[in-house]
Amino acid sequence: MQVTFVTTILIGAPAVAIASLAVTLPTWQGKALFAVRVGSVVWFVTAVAVYLYARRVHSEA
After folding, report:
1. Angle 2-20/28-60 helices, nearest 10 degrees?
2. How far apart are CA 59 and CA 55, in angstroms?
3. Which of 44, 38, 7 has its CA nearest to residue 20?
4. How far is it, in rounded angstroms, from Cα 38 to Cα 31?
5. pTM of the model
6. What pLDDT is recorded for position 31?
7. pLDDT digits (tens, 9 = 90+) for 2-46
8. Which of 13, 18, 20, 56, by CA, is between 20 and 30 Å from 40?
9. Is 6 left (phi over 0), alpha (psi -120 to 50) or beta?
10. What is the C-alpha end-to-end distance of the chain, expressed in Å?
11. Cα separation of 47 and 61, whole Å?
12. CA-to-CA distance for 42 and 46, rounded, in angstroms?
């Protein structure tokens, strides 16, 4: 759980910042909704990747 959280922060923050460069976000509401949308995708991908990694490592042990 901690690995997923830390990895999501380390990957998610730069991903949201880079993705926001290509989009016009004039309001704070737009910025927040954009961050939530991109962040949720990053969180989901990170969670699946960490799960698959843990499953692989656990099956080898």
Report:
1. 140
2. 6
3. 38
4. 11
5. 0.72
6. 92
7. 877 888 888 888 988 999 999 999 999 999 999 999 989 988 998
8. 56
9. alpha
10. 20
11. 21
12. 6
CB 42 within 8 A of CB 12: yes
Number of independent structural domains in the chain: 1
Which residues form the domain of 27? 2-60
**Cβ(46)–Cβ(16) below 8 Å:** no
Kindly write down the DSSP assignment for every residue of the chain, as one continuous string. -HHHHHHHHHHHHHHHHHHHTTS---SHHHHHHHHHHHHHHHHHHHHHHHHHHHHHHHHH-
Instruction: Please work out, in degrees rounded to the nearest 5, the angle formed at the alpha carbon of residue 14 by the alpha carbons of 47 and 31.
Output: 95
Locate 59 and state its tokens.
């099956």
Residue 51 in tokens: 């799960």
Which pair of structure tokens corresponds to residue 10?
């380390």
